[in-house]
């Protein structure tokens, strides 16, 4: 299966990562929570209770079929995925004695909407902020619907929510180093790669139930790879190389446990 709109997905993952985003906000590419590996890093980053909570249960998800040229179909499809994501993550969050409430989900059609404290950036598709996932039903994206594109986007955005619920987001904000810090790009990558790994963990927990051929998994990883900073040719290296993102998605997928997604203690070469 060919995965379309890869550049748009990359834009979705970048949206909101620009300097000046308000503290506490995240987006598809998540908020600029740039925090490098350091002995002084908050315990919520390096030894979060979520990491010891076990493995996401293998489960089957029932999502409605997509209809071509139908953004309402995409919205229903995504809501179903978010419901599955909540049912998968909730037991682990509860076992770790962490908040487990589902995020609010909003769909907008006006790119000028004040969704996360600032005007929507037109290149983006999704944002996460204030425990709310906001999705822009952009015609150029949602008129050509691809289920694997939507699955990864939903899982990634929910990964942002898990980071917020587990205290990772706030702990990351407490790390020293301003926007001009030399360590900022690496810290951003650690945050974003963790969200990608959380996404991979969820996908791994439901993949068998989707009854997809192995070629679809290769296409899925190719989609992920092409969101890399090196592939996109972006100056700001906030997401990691394509191969690095694939590594973390695969790491979560292979054993769907948040404990596999501790990017904060990983060696620098693992978050390049």
Shape verdict: globular
Helix/sheet category: alpha+beta
Number of domains: 1
Major beta sheet, strand line-up: 1-3-4-2
Low-confidence stretches: 1-8, 10-39
Radius of gyration, in Å, reads 17 Å
Order of helices and strands: HEHHEEEHHHHHHH
Distance between the termini: 29 Å
Plain-language structure description:
This protein has 10 helices and 4 strands, in the order αβααβββααααααα. The model is unreliable at 1-8 and 10-39 (pLDDT under 50). A 4-stranded mixed beta sheet has the order 1-3-4-2. The protein has helices spanning 6-14, 43-46, 71-95, 139-142, 147-165, 168-174, 184-210, 214-225, 229-232, 242-254, and strands spanning 25-27, 104-108, 126-129, 132-136. The protein has 272 residues and is an alpha+beta fold. Helix 8 (214-225) packs across helix 10 (242-254). The protein has one domain. The protein starts with 5 loop residues before the first helix and ends in an 18-residue tail after the last helix.
Any descriptors?
alpha+beta, single chain, 272 residues, four-stranded mixed β-sheet, 46% helix
Summarize the model shown.
The chain is of the alpha+beta class. Helices cover 46% and strands 6% of the residues.
């Amino acid at each position: 299966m060919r995965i379309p709109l890869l550049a748009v997905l990359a834009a979705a993952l970048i949206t909101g990562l620009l300097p000046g985003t308000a503290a506490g906000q995240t987006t598809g590419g998540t908020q600029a929570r740039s925090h490098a590996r350091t002995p002084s890093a908050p315990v919520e980053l390096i030894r979060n209770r979520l990491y010891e909570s076990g493995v996401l249960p293998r489960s089957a998800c029932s999502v409605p079929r997509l209809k071509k040229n139908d953004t309402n179909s995409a919205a229903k499809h995504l809501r179903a995925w978010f419901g599955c994501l909540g049912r998968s993550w909730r037991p682990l969050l509860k076992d770790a004695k962490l908040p487990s409430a589902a995020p609010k989900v909003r769909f907008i059609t006006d790119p000028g909407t004040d969704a996360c404290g600032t005007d929507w950036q037109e290149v983006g598709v999704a944002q996460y902020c204030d425990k709310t996932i906001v999705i822009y039903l952009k015609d150029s994206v949602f008129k050509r619907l691809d289920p694997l594109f939507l699955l990864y986007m939903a899982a990634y955005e929910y990964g942002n929510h898990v980071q917020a619920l587990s205290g990772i987001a706030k702990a990351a904000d407490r790390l020293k180093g301003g926007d001009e810090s030399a360590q900022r790009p690496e810290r951003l990558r650690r945050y974003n790669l963790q969200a990608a790994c959380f996404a991979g963990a969820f996908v791994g927990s439901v993949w068998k139930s989707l009854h997809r051929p192995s070629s679809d998994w290769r296409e899925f990883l190719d989609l992920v790879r092409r969101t890399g900073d090196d592939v996109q040719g972006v100056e700001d290296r906030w997401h990691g190389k394509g191969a690095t993102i694939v590594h973390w998605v695969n790491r979560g997928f292979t054993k769907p446990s948040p404990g596999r997604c501790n990017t904060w203690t990983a060696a620098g070469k693992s978050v390049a």
